[in-house]
Specification:
about 550 residues; mainly alpha; 3 domains
Length: about 550
């Protein structure tokens, strides 16, 4: 029975993880064609509305669905389905009320935010266009939380993917249409922002349909469950808020980090003497390259999702040696993904941005911001370890400290004329560096892990350096031979991958026991390294 429950838990986690990773990947990729459609300035307007929306969404629709899931799960486990559905009903009314207040509040304050805070009057239109999505997502999130509390993860996964597909199709089709009829840029950006409303509406329709189809089954469970003394509505609301508020605070941190750029970048560029339209375009350069930074972090997100149950089970069983070995391998894997990804993006910033976006203005930002990949992925990995150990507040605290660093550096560096938008990129890299170093320190403290600098940093750095030399050299050769930009970039990437794989073997980055812990790929590397006498023993 215990094994069946464990298998069910792993299966449910896998369903949500897959849906989350795939949805994030789509969310990163669609910005590439969107940038080609609306350009640097349009992306700046789009992101100004979207970053405020993301923050309000984190406040209004993150914590309460998790609380619904937890409280419904508790009641369902005790076979009190009637009380579980009552909690769902009360929570849905609470959540949709909050969503409605935030939607109306955002629409009423949008003129002030656009004029006085982000200092871009045209951002009003994207803000108004995206605001209704807050209410729709809040209602959808309550139903997701109910299903998750019943250990039914597939409705959430289907709704999440439906929402993302609906959003992306609407964003791209509406943007293309508005560009084709020569609409004003702010209207085109608003059309792209409205994709969030249509996407969330699609997701809501899907999950309501699933709920209605499940209602006969839920009614049967309710009739079979014993009647219990009902808690008052106020008691239920109090329980929901006790669980929801800490989760909401944690969920706000990352949108706040992104919101710092929205609030500070343009105003500090104006202070540096840059004209308003150019300042918005420079902010667009910053937001344009974010998908390229986020794509490598998908692997870190997947690893973090798998680490939480694995670390939790090992620590609860007192297997601290296993906790340390899993943590060390996870951190090393992340560094060995993050380091080459960062250096490769930095070296090939100009050809990559030209190939993907059709312009290279954002290359100067990507050359610096690429190094945030190292620290962002490391932070996500260590967050998974700490969450598995039960220290959910530590990553939030560490990221908040990084946020303070970002505010100070943004304010200081962006206004320096020679740096301007590069100052925002530098501040992001250093902010995530501070947060990730604090996270690593917390992991070492609470697991007893000894951070071996030579094994975990120096070896991967040497392999990355070798790769970087070949990538830079090969791209230079291709350019001199007058190959097309896209062919030169793609060929250099492939050469870099091969050279990095060889360099990893030559520097003996992995020991035999570490390779044995890596599924599928590990045994192959052991055979190859063994034949070449490059296998490092423990």
């Amino acid at each position: 029975m215990r094994k069946q429950k464990q298998a069910s838990f792993v299966k449910n986690a896998a369903i949500l993880s897959f849906a989350g990773i795939f949805s994030r990947m789509l969310g990163a990729i669609y910005r590439i064609p969107l940038t080609r459609l609306i350009g640097r300035e349009g992306m700046g307007l789009y992101q100004m509305g979207y970053s405020i929306y993301a923050l309000l969404l984190a406040v209004s629709a993150t914590g309460i669905p998790v609380a619904i899931s937890k409280l419904v799960s508790e009641e369902a486990t005790k076979n009190r389905m009637g009380e579980a559905r009552r909690i769902f009903k009360v929570a849905t009314i609470l959540l949709t009320s909050i969503g409605l207040v935030f939607t109306v509040g955002f629409m009423l304050t949008a003129p002030f935010i656009s004029n006085k805070i982000v200092k871009e009057p045209r951002a009003l239109y994207p803000m108004l266009a995206v605001a209704p999505a807050i209410f729709i997502v809040a209602l959808m999130a309550s139903i997701k939380g109910f299903f998750q509390g019943l250990q039914m993860m597939w409705p959430t996964a289907i709704a999440q993917l439906s929402e993302q597909f609906g959003r992306i199709i609407t964003v791209l089709v509406l943007s293309w249409y508005l560009v084709s009829i020569n609409s004003k840029l702010e209207i085109t950006a608003a059309g792209a922002s409205f994709g969030a409303v249509i996407g969330s509406l699609v997701g809501l329709i899907v999950i309501i349909f699933i709920y209605l189809r499940s209602k006969p089954f839920l009614n049967k469970l309710t009739r079979q469950s014993p009647r219990v003394s009902k808690r008052s509505t106020n008691q239920i609301i109090k329980r929901i808020l006790v669980f929801a508020i800490p989760i909401t605070i944690g969920a706000m941190v990352l949108p706040l980090m992104n919101g710092i750029d929205t609030v500070l970048v343009k105003s500090r560029l104006l202070d540096a003497g840059i004209e308003s339209t150019e300042a918005l375009s420079l902010y667009g350069d910053l937001t344009t390259v974010i998908p390229l930074i986020n794509l490598p972090s998908m692997l870190a997100y997947a690893l973090a999702a798998s680490l939480v149950p694995a670390i939790s089970m090992a620590s609860s069983s007192g297997k601290w040696r296993e906790v340390r070995s899993r943590s060390k391998l996870a951190i090393k894997l992340i560094l060995m993904i993050g380091l080459p990804a960062a250096l490769g993006l930095s070296i090939l910033a100009t050809p990559v941005t030209g190939m993907l976006f059709g312009f290279t203005n954002s290359a100067k930002v990507l050359q610096i911001l690429a190094f945030a990949v190292i620290f962002l992925t490391l932070h996500q990995c260590c967050t998974g370890i700490l969450q598995g150990l039960g220290y959910t507040g530590l990553p939030v605290r560490n990221l908040l400290i990084g946020g303070v660093v970002k505010i100070v550096l943004n304010y200081t560096l962006i206004a320096i004329p020679v740096l301007n938008i590069r100052g925002a990129a530098i501040s992001s890299v250093l902010a995530y560096a501070v947060a990730s170093i604090l996270n690593v320190r917390s992991v070492c403290k609470h697991t007893g892990l000894r951070f071996d600098i030579f094994d975990m940093i120096v070896r991967p750095l040497i392999a990355t350096g070798i790769m970087g030399i070949f990538v830079y050299g090969s791209y230079s050769v291709f350019v001199k031979a007058e190959f097309a930009n896209s062919i030169s970039a793609l060929a250099s990437v492939m050469i870099g991958v091969v050279c990095y794989a060889i360099a990893v073997l030559l520097t003996k980055c992995f020991s035999k026991s570490e390779l044995e812990s890596i599924p599928y790929v590990g045994p192959i590397i052991i055979r190859v390294a063994g034949k070449l006498r490059l296998l490092r023993r423990d």
